[in-house]
Amino acid sequence: MSMKRGFGFTRRAAVVALMASVALAGCGSKGDAPSGDAVKAAAAPGGVEKPVLKLGFIKLTDMAPLAIAKEKGFFAEEGLNVTLEPQANWKVLLDGVIGGQLDGAHMLAGQPIAATIGYGTKADLIAPLSLDLNGNAITVSNKVWDMVKPNLPMEGGKPKHPISAAVLQPVVASFKQQGKPFNMGMVFPVSTHNYELRYWLAAGGLNPGFYTPGDVGGTVDADVQLSVTPPPQMPATLEAGTIEGYCVGEPWNQAAVQKKIGVPIITDNEVWHDNPEKVFGLRKDFADKYPGTTAAMLRAIIKAQQWLDADGGKNRAEAVKILSQPNYVGADEKVIAASMTGKFTFEPGDTRDAPGFNIFFDKNAGYPFYSDAIWYLTQMRRWGQIPEDHDDQWYIDQAKAVYRPDLYLAAARGLAEKGVIPADAIPETDGFKPVDNGFMDHIPYDGHKPNAYIQSLKIGLKKGQKVTASGVTGS
After folding, report:
1. Which CATH number fits domain 11-133+276-368+403-425: 3.40.50.720, 3.40.190.10, 3.40.50.620, 3.20.20.140?
2. Per-residue pLDDT tens for 23-53?
3. Looking at residue 14, what is its pLDDT?
4. Where is this gene product found (predicted)?
């Protein structure tokens, strides 16, 4: 399998994308797209069945491909008149897609997977495109940081990274002695953030708790209590003392740094190197009914992803300005730029190079790998959201029902044939990545062998085990 490396694609492709956006400049600025006869004319050659669309998103940096597809005219190029609508939280967004109020959305990777297997809400959703790699971090309160920092190994006068959650063990013990729970926040029960935070805690010897059937709290046997908080509310919740830390996407870790209320202790790239993050999700019946429209959306988003990673990130400053608008992320430009322009600030005076913190196009970021979907399913089983054992083929079948590389490849190959994206940016793969050794605890992950992987994890459910309100039972 070819895996494209680097932060840029090709200069020729950048020029093609730039020329296309210039050609559309007459269509309007700040997201104005052609409508009426102009959209119909553009739609006709591409077979777009539904040119007027509404897509949802949460106010996070990694919704950037949708904003860029809108603002740079890539949706309009494909004959689409798209409205982008921010959603209050992930549950509202999910319900909007399932109910048809939204035609598609910037989604948590776990949402279409969970819906398909019937965890939470049952619905047939698909993910034909991955939006990005990396982009999250785990932040702790100043109080907690002050408790752990004196014991951290230093390197060049700064804390050595990655920082293990083992440093929290005495802090959690101190809270317990005082009769207080140690609370942390994440954004949704099936979010990448939940699983990354749980992975980090468990790798450091702390149990983040198990889910019982019908339970969305996941606190059985927990050393650390995790709860749901919408991303933009994370800093305020931390400042109020309701939680002592959280895992969230940007810019809400950098917001804590700017407000001087918390310190990012580790990035998700350090927990799992080049981990998949959000997906573009929609209903299966929508894709079946409107194949031309679906293909057009994917082409537009792929072009936006390419633009975001072009020429070593030369467009990131412009992307920051676009995302800072109140109709998108609505955070201060400096806060968004602090993680999106190749740097990441952990605390005042500790800003480090992080060229891969947000990856949208490079490293096959857009391809929806089955093995990524299977990893999420292993974590659902690990923590009890999937209450019973299943054989390896079940995991593979569920992944193939949700992740649709066939749709991605059709769109990407069409762009490559026209010279819009380079052909070598499209991976040659069976949908599975090679064995992944990029986790901070060095436990290898093979997507072909999900049960063996689950068994290899020190904390978590094992074969034959179930969760009840009184704890874990079974062999």
Report:
1. 3.40.190.10
2. 333 333 333 333 444 333 333 345 999 999 9
3. 34
4. Endomembrane system
